[in-house]
Every structure is written in C-alpha cells, then in structure tokens.
Fold this protein.
Amino acid sequence: MGLTESKLKNLSDKKFDKLFEGHREEWIEITRNAFESARDYICGGRIPSQDDVLKMLMPMLERNERLRKHQEENRARFKHFREAFAEFLIDEFFTTEPIFQEN
C-alpha cells in the first residue's frame, strides 16, 4: 500500500477529502469492519497489515452508493480513485483508532 503525496493531491482535487469529512463516522466504521474481517479471516486473529485490510475494504467500497455517487459527480469513476480513497481510509483508521495508540 502506498498513499503518496500525489494520491492525496488527486483525492483532494476530486473532493474525496470533503466526502470523508462529511461522513467520517461511516467511513471509519466501514474500515473497522474491513479490519476486523481481515483480522478474523485472513490473519487468524492477529492484527492485519494495511494491505490485508485493503483486500477486504475494496469490495465493500465497490458497492457503496455514497462513494459511487461522489465518483460520478466529480468525474472520478476510475478504480484508482477508489483504491486511493481506500488507502486514505486505512491510513486514517490506523493513525486514529485507540487500538493503535500507545498507553
């Protein structure tokens, strides 16, 4: 997984940052579901890598109507936008969730 500065700029240009901020709880919940699925079904209960979470998250996003509508409205229908957004969601999840914070 590689969330580069270029990908972040592309997402911002197509207003994916606003999509995230406007529905932050929903996106974190979807990413949490992908994380838990990867943990349980790919990693045997261990904390999954971001790439393993991406494997679970991509199919979840493909059918998400809010994301599909946003992609249509912002002329960002290509798969690479959805994948970059997924990487962004995973990055946010891994950096903000309490389970990853040191005590």
